[in-house]
Specification:
Layout lengths: L7 H17 L11 H13 L7 H17 L11 H15 L3 H20 L7 H4 L15 H16 L5 H20 L17 H4 L2 E3 L10 E3 L2 H12 L8 H14 L8 H14 L3 H9 L14 H11 L2
Antiparallel strand pairs: 1-2
């Protein structure tokens, strides 16, 4: 419940209404028979009241947490009966149901801590089970790299969206962005982008951050950027001819990728980080562990100058082999 007002009188009306609804359902304020669902609603109502002064983004995150918690937790579960083992179960359910990364599960752990701290202060529970939990967050699960079948299926679906005559102009543009982005990742891996939690710190600069590396210092033109995979030169030229010059805007890519997976649940478990790990895994299997580490590990263009012990052609040959 987002109050959306700074009026104390209106806020009190909302809170009184929430209390009356609980009383009518058999839950009295201060009683310990309140269910976890009702407890989460009450906690969110307290968080969202105007006096808290929380930002809209924070309120939206809290609302999402409550919605997800009510989706995975049994409706009849009483808050006072939740124990430390149940907290671990809830965290595992968060990860399995919503395909959360370990960092996001940590945030859900923190939200559960805040929820039960508030319940303890309001005397709705006898103890805070989160503090007794021996697992601060769910066990990290390493997702396997994309397979060729997964990649082709994703590309086919994106092309189908783009070519559908009923597709909106926005999705024609967004699907093309995702086609180019996933193709670039598939052919050359990802560099300098914090995508393991599906969040980019800045716009995605295709030329500088994904498939281009500096020429070694010992070669002429050491400051120039060269496409590391031959097939990407055509993609780069096509984008330039169509006027798609410059980086992908971070909000556009992130929103399009998440919305696409919501529209087509069969791709829900896929992440761009899995495509990056595909390149790294393939290099390891080929006995090129050092290449994998240096190519995917550095975070700045300046660090790419460490490649002077080999050549651009060497990397291009390796990438061509794994993308055949």
């Amino acid at each position: 419940m987002s109050l959306g007002t700074k009026s104390k009188a209106l806020a009190k009306t909302f809170l009184d209404q929430a209390i009356n609804e609980q009383v009518s359902s058999g839950v009295t304020p201060g009683s310990r028979n309140i269910t976890l669902h009702d407890a989460a609603d009450s906690w969110f109502a307290d968080r969202a009241r105007p006096l808290r002064g929380l930002s809209k983004v924070t309120i939206r995150e809290y609302r999402t947490f409550v919605k997800q918690l009510k989706e995975i937790a049994p409706e009849e579960l009483v808050a006072d009966e939740v124990r430390a083992a149940d907290i671990r179960t809830l965290l595992d359910l968060f990860q399995d149901t919503f395909q959360f990364s370990p960092s996001t599960v940590k945030k859900r752990f923190g939200a559960l801590m805040m929820l039960f701290n508030w319940l303890f202060e309001e005397d709705l529970v006898r103890l805070n089970p989160v503090k007794k939990s021996d697992a601060p967050f769910a066990t990290a699960k390493q997702l396997p790299p994309w397979t060729g079948e997964q990649y082709l299926k994703l590309q086919e679906q994106l092309f189908a969206v783009r070519e559908d005559p009923e597709t909106s102009e926005y999705w024609v543009r967004a699907s093309q962005l995702l086609i180019d982005l996933t193709k670039a990742l598939w052919l050359s891996g990802m560099r300098s982008i914090q995508a393991y939690r599906m969040r980019w710190e800045e716009d995605i600069d295709l030329e500088k951050m994904i498939w281009l590396v500096r020429s070694p210092r010992k070669n002429k033109g050491g400051e120039k950027l060269k496409p590391i995979h031959q097939s990407l030169s055509k993609l780069l030229l096509r984008r330039k001819l169509l006027g798609d010059v410059g980086p992908f805007p971070q909000p556009t890519c992130l929103y399009a990728w998440k919305t696409f997976k919501l529209r087509y649940p069969e791709f829900k478990g896929m992440s761009l980080h899995q495509c990056r790990s595909r390149v790294s895994t393939a290099f390891h299997e080929m006995g090129e562990s050092e290449v994998s580490r240096k190519m995917l590990g550095h975070t700045t263009l300046a660090a790419a100058d460490l490649y002077d012990w080999t050549s651009i052609e060497h990397y291009r040959g390796l990438l061509n082999r794994i993308s055949e």
